[in-house]
Amino acid sequence: MDVSRAIETRRAYRSLEPFEITEDLIKDLAHHASLAPSCTNTQPWRYVFVYKKEALEKLFEALPKGNQWVRQAGMVIAVFTSKDLACNMRNGIYAYYDTGLSNAFLILRATELGLVAHPIAGYDENIVKSALNIPENFEVIALIVVAKHSSTISPLLSEKQIQTEHTRPERKKFEEFCYMNKVE
Question: Where in this chain does the entry annotate a coiled-coil region (predicted)?
Answer without folding.
Answer: none
